[in-house]
From TrEMBL:
This is LysR family transcriptional regulator. Residues 1-59 form the HTH lysR-type domain. Keywords: DNA-binding, Transcription, Transcription regulation. InterPro entries: LysR_HTH_N, LysR_subst-bd, WH-like_DNA-bd_sf, WH_DNA-bd_sf. Belongs to the LysR transcriptional regulatory family. Gene3D superfamilies: 3.40.190.290, Winged helix-like DNA-binding domain superfamily/Winged helix DNA-binding domain. It comes from the Bacteria. The keyword DNA-binding applies. It comes from Deinococcus roseus. PROSITE patterns: HTH_LYSR (PS50931). The keyword Membrane does not apply.
Length: 297
């Protein structure tokens, strides 16, 4: 039990970034938490925190230990809470933010039975920068972000690797040769469809496959990937989209994959939450449901 208490004290200090605040969260004295950290460091023969003028900074060993034990300790706490209070301990609302297309295609179908646990979902759509601000402000519990978040107040893990594919209608497929360098030249003359003015998915694809950036301006910009699917299928131009979003249309032949690179570009999606020991059991429950579901996506 002492070993478990040492790990729990360590994880709390790691997440809140302060021995004083960790002691308050654990209802322990500061010397007790300091002693448990020292005992854990002695047992591991590793320094876990470096003292600096404004507090403490985790070492590489601390980052690795937190990564290995965090989910397991959270699961133990969730189980204990559920056994103590019954299933109603999960009842309430979880607020989730992310991109509309990915939430609709992957996240929400994986959480469709949460009502059986008396958990309600409220979804907010938007750009990752705005959603992360809402997460920090407490307006959201979980965020699916299309960009990596570097913030000491937040934790994240890779949730999904979406493969990016260059697609267009059959009429455009006939004009694009299979040789990569020749295809890059031909594509300069074909209308590009994009999610945003800076061509985010197109730029990622071009950089990895062609070793350059698109030189053309998009003929259509619409902040809705599903709209891009429809326009591309109708012959309006070519675009880069996540494979999960166009898989059925590729099988049906309504869209064509225009190139087949040996190493397809991928885009990482991250699940983000606050580094906070007071994270409610239902938020932990939903987070772990998503993490398990992502293994099947």
């Amino acid at each position: 039990m002492d070993n478990l208490n040492q790990l729990r004290s360590f994880l709390t200090v790691y997440r809140v970034g302060s021995i004083t605040r960790a002691a308050e969260a654990l209802h322990l004295t500061q010397p007790a938490v300091t002693r448990q950290l020292r005992q854990l460091e002695e047992r591991m023969s590793r320094q876990l925190f470096t003292r600096v003028p404004r507090g403490i900074v985790p070492t590489a060993a601390a980052h690795e230990l937190a990564r290995r034990i965090g989910t397991h300790l959270d699961a133990l706490d969730l189980l204990a809470e559920s056994l103590k209070l019954g299933s109603q301990s999960l009842a309430g609302t979880v607020y989730v933010g992310g991109p509309a297309e990915f939430l609709g295609a992957k996240v929400l179908p994986s959480l469709s039975d949460l009502h059986e646990e008396n958990i309600l979902l409220r979804i907010r759509l938007g750009a990752p920068e705005v959603l992360v601000q809402d997460l920090q402000a407490g307006a959201l519990d979980l965020v699916v972000s299309t960009v990596r978040i570097s913030n000491p107040e937040l934790e994240s893990r890779t949730l999904y690797l979406e493969e990016l594919v260059l697609v267009g209608s059959a009429s455009w497929a006939e004009k694009i040769p299979r040789k990569t360098l020749v295809a890059a030249e031909v594509l300069k003359q074909i209308p590009l469809l994009s999610y945003a003015e800076d061509l985010p998915l197109l730029r990622r694809y071009w950089r990895q496959v062609f070793g350059s950036l698109p030189s053309a301006t998009a003929s259509l910009v619409v902040p809705d990937l599903r709209a891009l699917v429809e326009v591309a299928a109708s012959g309006g131009g070519v675009t880069v989209l996540p494979r999960y979003l166009v898989e059925d249309l590729l099988v049906q032949g309504d869209l064509m994959e225009l190139l087949h690179p040996l190493k397809p570009p991928v885009n990482q999606l991250h699940l983000v939450w606050k580094r906070d020991t007071s994270l409610h059991p239902r938020v932990i429950y939903v987070k772990e449901r998503l993490e398990r579901a992502s293994e099947r996506w």
